[in-house]
Amino acid sequence: MDGGELAAHRIARIETRTVTSHYPRIVGKNARRGVHGPGPQSQVRIITTDRGAVGWGLSAGPDGALPALVGRRINDLFEPAVGVIDTAALPLDFPLHDLAARILGVPVYRMLGAAGPTSFPCYDGAIYMDDILPEDAPRGCDVILENCAADWALGYRAFKLKIGRGHQWMPPEEGLRRDIAVTRLVRERYPASLLLVDGNDGFTCDQFLRYLDAVADCSLYWIEEPFPEARQDLQRLREFLAARSPQTLLADGEASPDIPHLIALAREGLVDVLLMDIVGLGFTAWRRWMPTFAEIGVRTAPHTWGVPVKTFYAAQLGAGLGNVLILEGIPCVAGDLDGSAYHLAEGVLHVPDAPGFAVTLRDQ
Ligand SMILES: [Mg+2]
After folding, report:
1. Residue 258 CA, ligand 1 centroid: distance in Å
2. Is residue 112 part of a domain?
3. How far is the CA of 198 from the centre of ligand 1 (A)?
4. Whether the Cβ atoms of residue 7 and residue 73 lie closer than 8 Å to each other
5. Between the N and C ends of the chain, which has fewer C-beta atoms within 10 Å?
């Protein structure tokens, strides 16, 4: 797709706004972080061109050098085949992808080449440690099942459980027992669902193998960040899985990713799925790295917690480039962003055939 049409547009205005998303409930703790709250406030930027085209997207950081981009031609900042080509415009990575695809009249994924599917399994990423809250009268395991049932009603069929309660919230043995109990409970209630577990690097290797020993018959779909990714620990985990749960995938690379290190681990078969954040790494950077990931045979599932629009960004990346295995879904009930063009049914998220990222900003 050539970007000729982009040359006809210059940036006329860059507006910065804060938008709010609402989770269906207060989201509690993971192994490392306290209560996540009712939903995030996120900074977005809206670009308007001198010909009236508009694109927007998540865009962190201060204005800095952005005012100097007013007057620049879009094709000097962005190439459809690459993404952002001027580092001064990198804070506008998502707004520029949205804008360029809208000018070209195509979904972002078509601008990327439409090499992947347009529907993806999408798991529920919001099953946190709500059983240990409120601190003065913890609700216990039942609330985990209530949360799963509520998200099932929203269309989710796969669940990711936060584990590692013994890292700091409970005494280690009690925390381990609770992690095991929660995992077995959800597996029992949902025997056919994909079940993922995420330790947020809150275990030692020995602790994690004890957890796994107790749930090895639960057919875990993936294990995410059980402990910081050290080769020897991953080798022990891989050997354990080969013997006890060979279909379980190892997913890593969300926290402080060192991509060359992750690639080396993936080449050794010690990581199956890479999780770098869709915004933290950036859309242009994901586009640059994906061919390498595909070539070495490591799948991806960009981290998207906890802004719902990030799931749609990851969906467009996967539909455009392929090699995205599954999406992290963020249950959302309302807010300033309208992503209703994306349809979640029976655990599958369908990507719409509409221009840009196909998410609109509601008037505030
Ligand atoms: Mg995680």
Report:
1. 16
2. no
3. 6
4. yes
5. C
In order of 47, 167, 223, 260, 284, the CA distances from 183 in angstroms are 45, 17, 12, 33, 37
> Do 303 and 335 sit in the same domain of this protein?
yes
Report which DSSP code applies to 71. T
Compute, in angstroms, the gap from residue 162 CA to the centroid of ligand 1: 8
**Nearby residues for ligand 1 (ion, Cβ within 5 Å):** 198, 254
- What's the CA-to-centroid distance between 203 and ligand 1, angstroms? 13
- pLDDT tens-place string over residues 344-357: 999 999 999 999 99
Among residues 63, 83, 106, the one where a domain terminates is 106
307 and 226 in one domain?
A: yes
pLDDT digits (tens, 9 = 90+) for 14-49: 999 999 999 999 999 999 999 999 999 999 999 999
**Do 218 and 301 have their domain in common?**
yes
- Per-residue pLDDT band at 168 (split at 50, 70, 90): very high
| Alpha carbon of 46 to ligand 1 centroid (Å) | 29
Length of the chain: 364
CA distance 194 to 196: 7
Question: Looking at residue 89, which CATH number applies to its domain?
Answer: 3.30.390.10
Per the structure, the complete domain to which residue 92 belongs is given by 4-106
Q: How many folded domains does the chain comprise?
A: 2
